[in-house]
Amino acid sequence: MNAFQALELTERKNNAIKNITEVIYRNITNKIKFAAVMGQKRIGFDVPMFVESYPVVDYGLLIRSVCEKLRKNNYLCARITEKSILISWEKAKQKKQKK
């Protein structure tokens, strides 16, 4: 293996994490929509250890990537167990009212 092949493997891993994050984020937003309609301001979500048709990736890195995407979209995200995260949008409302 040469350096270019090693870089290609790293790029594939990074692309896989991005793609899996997008799939999980879509699942989370569907769950958030349902919860918001029901009057909730936070949800728990179990991040899957793998997603069908995608390669296995570093689970800790995947959870960090999902939380980072949620935070970029003004959600609060906290890891509460090894595989569960808590997502809240309550503070986003408070920030919007202050503006």
What does this structure look like?
The protein is an alpha+beta fold. The protein has a single domain (3-98), classed as 2-Layer Sandwich (Ribosomal Protein S8, Chain: A, domain 1), CATH 3.30.1370. Helices cover 59% and strands 14% of the residues. It is built from three helices and three strands. It has helices at 3-37, 59-72, 90-98; strands spanning 42-46, 76-79, 84-88. Strands 1-3-2 form a three-stranded antiparallel β-sheet. Helix 1 (3-37) crosses helix 2.
Give the gist of this structure.
The protein has 99 residues and is of the alpha+beta class. The chain has three helices and three strands, in the order H-E-H-E-E-H.
Topology:
Layout: H1 3-37, E1 42-46, H2 59-72, E2 76-79, E3 84-88, H3 90-98
Antiparallel strand pairs: 1-3, 2-3
Helix pairs in contact: 1-2
Outline the low-pLDDT stretches. Answer: none
Number of strands: 3
The portion of residues assigned to helices is 55-70%
Average pLDDT confidence is 91
Distance between the termini: 55 Å
Based on the model shown, name its key terms.
99 residues, alpha+beta, Ribosomal Protein S8, Chain: A, domain 1, 3 helices, 3 strands, elongated
